Fold each of these.
Amino acid sequence: MTKQIRKIGVMTSGGDAPGMNAAIRSVVRTCAFHNIECIGIYRGYEGMIEGDFKILDARSVNHIIHKGGTFLKSARSKEFRTKEGRQKAYLQLKSVGIDALVLIGGDGTFTGGMIFNQEFNFPVIGIPGTIDNDILGTNFTLGYDTALNTAVEAIDKIRDTASSHKRLFFVEVMGRDVGHIALNAGVGAGAEEILVPEEDLGLDRLLESLEKSRKTGKSSSIVVVAEGDKTGKNVFELADYVEENLEGYDVRVSVLGHMQRGGSPSCFDRVLASRMGVKAVESLMEGKSNFMVGTINNKLELYPIDKAVKGHSEIDHELLRVSDIMSI
Ligand code: F6P
């Protein structure tokens, strides 16, 4: 018989993402609905090690569904990577009677949770929260949709100034080692070229394409560059390279940076967070552990955490072809 869950701890860890507050709210309210006590763990694994806990009830999460960031705060903990750190965290959880965890974060968060589960047989369920959308076992991570829209809005604004001055802009977007944000924001904002880590088209091809754009009458161009792209040059070096090798191009660089992590979550992220929080708590109640809640074809599915952290989700390669056609 599975042990009855009486107290669930919820935390956010790693890079914050829009929709994390909505997910916390959902976990807290689902716990309240099922008469389970919910404890907020502040500052991710750091707070778990230090016992930075607070009881959360349904009213503690009023008016946060629309807020960016995470009110529980987040951190990337070095100490939790050590056995001693995890032992301290375990003792802290036990001292207040927490018997299961909902972990909201990305692959670093899940790797920590998976090891913790193996060492202490502690029930954990993950909710994927990262703007990068790089987690296996889910079509969407929380925050990705919002970050995409933020990036597109920013690139639209850059387009206004680029076309007023006949300029070429290199715009760097986040995404760590994957190109989901670059590819989708690039297509959404009508970029002339998109450089993603998954496909290194080479610098010659970039020059050719920009030259072609100019010859066919384009007066301004946007190249979206994923921060993890594999050209071997950072975005500033790329801009210099193009300026040196293509005459008549007035080049500028814009790095969107952490603005992509902020802002009010989109409706899509709020709804997904609400659904995932319910699924996470109810899965723990059913005795499930060491899974991540994913969404596949708009259906929530449990995916083994150890598989989720094994690699990165694939970009849609067909979208690269679509981009080539659109930027003719
Ligand atoms: O994983 C989310 C993310 O924003 C990545 O896109 C980016 O590479 C990284 O975090 C930045 O991390 P930090 O906030 O620690 O600089």
Amino acid sequence: MTPLHIFARKKRDKSPLSMLSLYDAPSAQIACEAGADAILVGDSLGNAILGYDSTLPVTMSDMLRHTGAVVRGVKSSSRVDVAVVADLPFGSYATPKRAIKNAVALLQIGAHAVKIEGVNPDLLQKMAREGIPVMGHLGFTPQSVLQFESVVQGKTSEVGQRLARQAAVLEECGAFAVVLEAVTGEVAQHITAQLKIATVGIGAGAGCDGQVLVWNDVVGLSPQTFKLAKAWANTRQIWLEAAQNYVGEVQNGSFPAPENGWNMNDEERAKFSASHDEIEIETLDEQPF
Ligand code: KIV
């Protein structure tokens, strides 16, 4: 059974699904241990890890490398069946042919599904025919950041109705779930009630079937916490203190301590220093005075 069934099961049981967007093996392992239902290898990779100021520069090779790392992290955990969804990055699904080729590459590396932003019925149907499970993404879609006037979507009835129609099309075209990002609570709740597939919200209120947040926000690694997120730890401060202590101990000579390294036994040390003296003498002889 595919791990993706968790989305339908959680919706049916009215039990909130927890998903984390993360990018590496150790974080995936921790998320699995923490009981997360699903992992997204989001193209927020661009902002969270690669130091870009948007998701637009993220490439397929970035996504393949990080999806592979996450899949290995899940497999090394005690919960090998956690669902892994990978984002198709900007430009990688501009044509159905390109989308299918890139989605296949992500599935072959071990993702169970791909996520794409927006609604393109022709593309979605072709992907469904190829057997590619697709998660939709509506509301604020970061790959279209250059087109948005504001982040929050669905503040008016007109936009709310448009989002509800788009969500219905995603379901009709075979998507197994849909992310609703920065969508007003009323609209997200309406879409959740209208759809048979699960909605996973980020900044879309408590009325969704599940929630997704970015790892860096959850563990407090991001420089600032966004309104739609919450930090449950202050990892940035912990890392800062660790790095400061390391730098300080290197500078004052207390690291490395004897127990952080290895030594020769007395006999080998004596031989080594004798050979070292010989080498120095030979070197000196060769000097052209
Ligand atoms: O890239 C990402 O992490 C995402 C989530 C924020 C939904 O798309």
